[in-house]
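pasting for the record
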Amino acid sequence: MTSLAEEHVKPAVRWGIGHALPRTVMRLAARRGDLQGRITVEASSGADLTGLFDEIRARGPLAPTRVGHTTTRHAVVKALLADDAFVTARPRFGAGILGKLAAWSDTDVMHPVRPPSLLAVEPPSHTRYRKLVTRVFTARAVEQLRARTQQIADELLDDLAPANPVDLIETYCGLLPVTVISEILGVPQNERATVLALGAAAAPSLDLGLPWRVFRSVESGLNTFDAWLSRHLDALRRNPGDNLLSRLITAREDGEGLTERELKATAGLVLAAGFETTVNLLGNGIALLTSHPGQLATVRARPELWSNAVDEILRFDAPVLLTGRICARDTTLAGVPVRRGQLVTTVLAGANRDPEVFENPHEFDVTRANARDHVSFGAGRHYCLGAQLARMEGEIGLRTIFDRFPDLTPLAGARRRPTRILRGFETLPARLGGPGAS
């Protein structure tokens, strides 16, 4: 039986230390004008952060904050993410009462930003781990999914009623990537609704400062996903299929493969990164193209621009707002001293608007020659493994819906997601109109 402490007290302590306390600190800091506090608070409101990006950039290469530094400068973001003096950020509570409470209340639940997730480990473990994953997540493997992704997009659009308003997030933007990811993970057809529900429940797990109910929902979803993954991995070991997760189970490097926890962490990361960010890419892309009809007309007239248009969407409205790193040793970056233990927040969406790199950065331009220079997939050793997959899905998903429904019209009621880190739409109502030429 689960003890009272395990069921109620420890979760409350985890939430208090990991969410309630940081949220209070960040809100107080925001009221005092602290840049870290402001971007944390304002991101959850769905507000346009363009002005804040520019303000941070104007404060220098590394703008000081209450807990360290932040930056929206493209060159600094790329340099920091490639610098081994900075490691993936995880809460550190020290040896005092907070540290003891954090250790006592800790849980073994799998989490996308906790070890052994690729997002949360560093060399040498990261090097071994990523090499194994990269071996089965190759450009060739992704390209082999192209025809199947096109088929999935066509089938989903076949099922939509052209004359009726639809929520594109629910009926298309969410279903396309979850179907592709399910095939990558070898998920049977009858279990894909479960994967979609678990992905949605776990989406806020990247955020800091979650409300109590959301926190409990996230932990419940992660626990359920962990249990489901155990059963799914056992099934694939008994009956391996032609999918990337089956290949990962048997992958070896110098005779050593991935552990059970590493396999689970990888599957969870593929789901979180491959599903959640692509949902946002598709939704953001539909919203941008319908609100910029001239740009949509350009890409329709020149279909070879679809790939570039996807990168411009990623640049202009990044699916991931920011990432953080902890300084592992005293160092200097961009001429600014950074002390061991300080947090540096790299605002990816802000770096994508750096006028030093992008001409007229606040304009959406599908013909932009250097759109691909965005940092929406990060940089350095933690560069997103699923970048090629996301680009491929974005290109097929957007081109196909606009080819099929050239009169697609957004309706009132679109709502941005309340998550801070992941940036996209929760609902995107639209009228599809009549189908175009197939």
